[in-house]
Amino acid sequence: MPPALNVLWISLEDTSPRFGCYGDPLARTPHIDRLAREGRRYPLAFSTCAVCAPSRCAVITGMYATSIGGHHMRTTHSSAHSPELPTPYNVVPPPYVKTFTEYLRAAGYYCTNNAKTDYQFTPPCTAWDECGPTAHWRHRDPGQPFFAVFNPTVTHESGMWPRADRQVLTDPDKVELPPYLPDTPKARLALARHYDNLEVADRQLGELLDQLDSDGLAENTAVFLWSDHGEGLPRAKRWPYDAGIRIPLIVRWPDHLPPSSTAEDLVSLIDLAPTVLSMVGIQLPRHFQGQAFLGDAASSRQYVFASRDRHDEAYDMVRAVRDQRFKYIRHFFPGTPYLPWIPYRNRHPVMQELWRLYAEGRLTGPQTVLFEPRPPEELYDTSVDPYELHNLAQDPAHAATLERLRQACETWRRTCGDLGDEPEAQMAARMWPGGIQPETVVPLFIPLGPEGAGVEPSDKGGAFPDPLLLQMHCATQGASINYTFEAGEAAKWRLYTAPLRLPHGATTVRAKAGRIGFKDSAEQKATFLVERTQATATR
Description:
Structural class: alpha/beta
Number of strands: 23
Distance between the termini: 33 Å
Shape: globular
Strand order of the largest sheet: 5-4-6-1-7-9-2-10
Radius of gyration: 25 Å
CATH superfamily of the largest domain: Alkaline Phosphatase, subunit A
Strand content: 15-25%
Largest sheet: 8 strands, mixed
CATH topology of the largest domain: Alkaline Phosphatase, subunit A
């Protein structure tokens, strides 16, 4: 049999497709362009949210953040300006929702993440084999297939802010700002910094591709390059316009995808998890809300969906649906400002320019769009209006399209169970009763021996006749269990999927359990002595 497929993800931050392979003449992205020449581009790829944490929540679970309570930006600092919330909380989804990496680990994959998570919950102990700044596929067992994620953070929105120790290499006079942003030296300089940061991220990608080549793994590894959402400019980040949710997506899969190919299919980031499982031959869990776009389970989608809710201090609720041409946006708070108070966003140089020119009465044309009252609905024909400036929601010629997308949005909300309808404080109190994080119960060891098999737990270990199987059990609904036979902090932990056959002699077993949103359990540890009997000795 051929070796199992390896998978490598490089997930950028705050990045629209400003790459040479997407036609940007100012980009300096030779390694990204090489990846596109060797693989396939997806020009109609979109995130489920225009900000990182809700987007990454959908990626790691295969579920819309609005369905499992991860739709508000940053539950970890929510109480600072929301005193009605019980505490900063981890999202607690239904018990069957797991990080999709558990399905890979159960199939024998070594799963690593270097190093950003930002899932709206602390990843449970069972999510990764390694998660940290040194995590790498090179730490796996010989011959073990891997799923590895690297998260360059250099392209984050904050990289557009001035730094005294950084020289700007991109010529600010050559950058092109969207027409709804002010074309000033300060704004152009901010975008020039982003081009510089994209070049740095490109070099980091090149280093990873070189490591694959030097390890002899390139021909048996599928490489994905994507961004958690669109670029970090005003009216892009935090908004479901295409500037905020359209992302670069490139996949290189040797012998499966033609070089220099392009697929015009709609793709959502929520599709990444089912796609990886489909490619490596793992059946898809039925609760997944994404759909595979590669592999045996691949199918096409008619729409992509996106959401906007609380961003840091400011509550909002916006839902959006897009087909290959039209974008529909519903505002649940029409008439309110597009720009509520979000102090972090106001540190952006371009946002500062917008506020300055607005105060001076010097904004003109599309630059005023963020200061107009919000309508209940927006509709855009992106084929002729890529910046989404001409709202067609009141145009009788587009009434049928408006109604079709309106119904698609409501069907999605109803089918997926939109928790945006529930006040956050009420939702958080339901997830963390009394404001206290639920904790995973300590797992039990149950010896399955020839006599009294599986009747009583034996968490202090003991002596047992051969043969001995060891079952593990956790009473927390939906919990998974990690175990190891090794001692110390450097021990490699494995996902428990079936009873373990213990060898003759003494074996020390360590186990701990976890569930998304719950605190990991304390560690269980016991030593089992498997003794040969006369019967086993004569076999």
